[in-house]
Amino acid sequence: MGRMELHITGDAAADQLLSEDSFALLTGMLLDQQVTMESAFAGPEKIRTRLGTLEPRVVAEQDPAGFVELFKERPAVHRFPGSMAGRVQALAAAVDSDWGGDASAIWTRGNPDGPEVLRRLRSLPGYGEQKAKIFLALLGKQCGLRAAGWQEAAGHYGEEGSYLSVADIVDPGSLAKVRASKQAAKAAAKAAKAPAS
Predict the structure, then answer these.
(1) Residue 22 CB neighbour total at 10 angstroms
(2) Residue 90's CB: how many other CB atoms inside 10 A?
(3) Can you give the residue range of the structural domain that contains 27?
């Protein structure tokens, strides 16, 4: 996979880390819940700055209480530092033990097809079906993933011209479109739950 330039957070240092470090990208996706996308994907750079590295083994071996404190430092890495710090450490431990510390091996080792990459992502701590599909779409749309069938495996997140997820964010304009579609989806879900009058 060639070097890609990601523009997700609007912060040059955070975006550069996401572009260069597969584990940072995987961590940003993990953090992408109950906070804005930009905040989630800026998290790995905050961790790297405070810890001095984002090497999975080093992250996994941090004292859990100390790692939570690192998450709480202002500006906080996530609004739920306790649970999310633990998830990042679990993810780091899995990448270290199962993939030799190389996150990109998840989508490159053994030349996997799209469904296999999705299966590998879903097996990671903190990655459910939706997160795995969005990350697969991000790899395919912006990171040069050429795995056969990735688009189908990513479901509607893989569709061309959709603005459904972080996979579609390449600049402030597309970020605004994705935010609008997410808000519309949320409103629709809320309306569906509302009792019929």
Answers:
(1) 22
(2) 15
(3) 12-159
